[in-house]
Structure formats: C-alpha cells, structure tokens
Write a structure and sequence with these properties.
By secondary structure, the chain is mainly α. It has 2 domains: 215 residues, HUPs (Rossmann fold); 86 residues, Tyrosyl-Transfer RNA Synthetase (Orthogonal Bundle), CATH 1.10.240.10. It has 13 helices and 5 strands. α8 links the parallel β4 and β5. The radius of gyration is 22 Å and the shape is elongated. It binds adenosine monophosphate (AMP) and tryptophan. The site of adenosine monophosphate (AMP) has 16 residues, from α1 and β4.
Length: 332
C-alpha cells in the first residue's frame, strides 16, 4: 500500500516537459490497485511569486483540465489546494518545528528570490513548509517529483521526523521520493523546457502549433549538415521519441537512422510530430470535451475537495492532539 501525492502549479500552459516528465507517471502510478492517490493544483504555491489575480481562476481551471485530460480517472483524487484550508493550517504547525537554517539552504528559494528581487514575500521562503503540509496531510508515502523538487521532499521527510520527535507521537510517515529522472530540454536547447523561459511546446497545442515550434527546435549541435551522423543520446528530439515512439521504430528508424545519417533532423522531427499526435491527439480531444462541460470539471474538483477535507480533518485531529492544542483536548 502506498499513498501517492503530487502537485502542479497553475502558472501557465502545461507543456511537454510536464507531460513527459511528470503527468504520464501520475497516471501510471494512480492505476496501480495498491495505490491511493491525490493530485493537486497547488494554487497557494503559485501565490509566492507575482501573478495576475484577474486571470488566475482561469489558469487553475485550465490546469485542472490538462491534468484530467491526461487520463486521471475516479481512482485518483484531483483537487485544488485552496479548497482544503487544512493545508495552510498544518503549514503553521509544521512551521513552528521547521529549522530556519534548513529553509535558507533551499536552492529554489535562492534562485527565485534572485529572479523576483523586488517582491520577495515570506511565503517564498516558507514554501517548502507548505509543500510538506500538502504531503503529510494525507500521510503521503510516495511522491513523484523531478530532480528540482528532491530537496523540498527531503525537507518534508525532516518535517515528519521533527514533528513526530517533538511530540513523541507517530503522526506522520516519512514520504519517499519516486524520482522522475527524465528531463525535457527547451526548444532553444536550454537545459529545461520551462514556462518561465518561453521555450515550451504546450501539451494541448494543435499539430500545426507543435510543428511550428518543433521545426525550429534544437537538435544535436554537432550535426551541422544532413551528412553528419547524429548523437541521439544528446538530442532532445530523441529524448522525446523515447517517450512516444514505440519499438521497433524507435531503434530501427529513429536511432539507427540518425547515427548512420540515413535520416536528417527534419525527417526525425516529422516522425516525432506523428508520434506526438498519436499520443496527444486523444488527450487534446478529452481536454476539448472537458472544456465544453465546465460544470463537470467543477464537480470533479468539488468532489475531490470534499474527499480531501474529510481526510485532512482526521489528520488535523491527530496533529492537534499530539501538539496539545486546546480545542483538541478530550471533552467531558
Ligand atoms: P512545474 O511546472 O514546475 O509546476 O512542474 C510540474 C512537474 O513537471 C514537476 O514534477 C516537474 O519536475 C515536471 N517538469 C517541469 N518541467 C520539466 C521538464 N522540462 N522536464 C521534465 N519534467 C519537468
Ligand atoms: N513544488 C512543486 C513544483 O513546483 C509542486 C508541489 C507543491 C508538490 N506541493 C507538492 C509536488 C507536493 C509534490 C508534492 O513542482
């Protein structure tokens, strides 16, 4: 038995990096009968950097559509973080046992506070406490995250340990990472496809939009002409092929074609566009269906929120009892 928890911030279009690096794995993990899973649109995390309040509800809705369209079904609980007030409540209790020194070492804080120099709120600093609360509220044991979130997850493990130790109670299990190692580079050759770098291909782009971005995307920088054999192991196009192009085509046509210069980068990209469409066409169709029924999306999120509030209420009762909170004392 494992309890899976993961989250995605509603901070822009879901892109192929999110899809290949994270969302596909969420679906896979949620299908295992021995797993109970929670996936959250973590809006409270997005409040830690400047955002547009007017368009924000739309961004949350779009993120929910994307997450559901990938194929999460009723086996998984999908919800919006702010619909469950216990996340911020638990974050307070954890914050009181969180060592400042550990927070100060977080590389994401260092990077983001540099990026948003003029508007660094305390929330950006305490972000990992909220992330720990997300996981621990559901007694999460397995957390699918990419490399950039491993440090935060280690912090969440420490939080579980600190809290249990401080109050001599086994309230929280220690969550383990399910390390997602695949990293998709940007279309500009940048180390990471990322919303903030403008080098993305959106998961829900039409084939025409995909092709426009793919056409100009970086490949192996040493393959300057069609005649020079390519190196799939350093090529982002090949990385994406490994996710969506099945064998034997992957090895025989794409890999061998590239290393023997039988196919050029343009041919290789055309094949990738076809594979992407085969994989993502149905996702886009589901997203369109969901967008046409906004009431259905809200219903799923409301149900998810209700399930989470029930679970969160149970956990908070244990937390408060352990921490000696007045309202949790046994009443006559
Ligand atoms: P974010 O967009 O930062 O909220 O990330 C959501 C999830 O997508 C996290 O699990 C990230 O690790 C993953 N992710 C984001 N960008 C990439 C990328 N370029 N390659 C692989 N995974 C990614
Ligand atoms: N911080 C994560 C990110 O930026 C999102 C997130 C918030 C998360 N809470 C979480 C991921 C809990 C895993 C578990 O990608």
């Amino acid at each position: 038995m494992a309890t899976i928890f993961s989250g995605i911030q509603p901070t822009g279009e879901v892109h192929l990096g999110n899809y290949m690096g994270a969302l596909r794995h969420w679906v896979e993990l949620s299908k295992k009968p021995e797993h109970t899973s929670y996936f959250s649109i973590v809006d409270c995390h997005a409040f830690t950097i400047p955002y547009d309040a007017a368009t924000f509800p739309r961004a949350v809705f779009d993120a929910a559509v994307a997450v559901l369209a990938v194929g999460l079904d009723e086996r998984a609980t999908v919800f919006v973080q702010s619909d469950v007030p216990q996340h911020t409540e638990l974050a307070w209790y954890l914050g009181c046992v969180a060592p400042m020194g550990e927070l100060g070492r977080m590389t994401q804080f260092k990077e983001k506070s540099e990026q948003h120099k003029t508007s660094v709120g305390a929330g950006l600093f305490t972000y990992p406490i909220l992330m720990a609360a997300d996981i621990l509220l559901y007694k999460g044991t397995l957390v699918p995250v990419g490399h950039d979130q491993l440090q935060h997850l280690e912090f969440a493990r420490d939080m579980a340990r600190h809290f249990n130790h401080r109050f001599k109670a086994e309230v929280f299990p220690e969550p383990k990472p399910h390390h997602l190692t695949l990293r998709i580079k940007g279309t500009d050759g940048g180390e990471k496809m990322s919303k903030s770098r403008g080098n993305t291909i959106a998961m829900l782009d039409t084939p025409e939009q995909v092709w426009k971005k793919l056409k100009g995307a970086f490949t192996d920088p040493q393959r300057l002409t069609r005649e020079i054999p390519g190196r799939p192991e350093v090529c982002n196009i090949y990385t994406m092929h490994t996710v969506v192009t099945p064998e034997p085509a992957l090895t025989e046509v794409v890999h061998n074609g590239c290393t023997t210069a039988k196919i050029g980068c343009g041919d290789c990209k055309k094949l990738l566009a076809e594979s992407l469409e085969r994989d993502l066409g149905p996702v886009r169709a589901r997203a369109n269906e969901l967008r046409a029924q906004p009431g259905r999306v809200l219903e799923i999120l409301n149900e998810g929120g209700a399930t989470c509030r029930a679970k969160a209420t149970e956990t908070m009762r244990e937390v408060k009892e352990a921490a000696g909170v007045f309202g949790a004392r046994s009443r006559p």
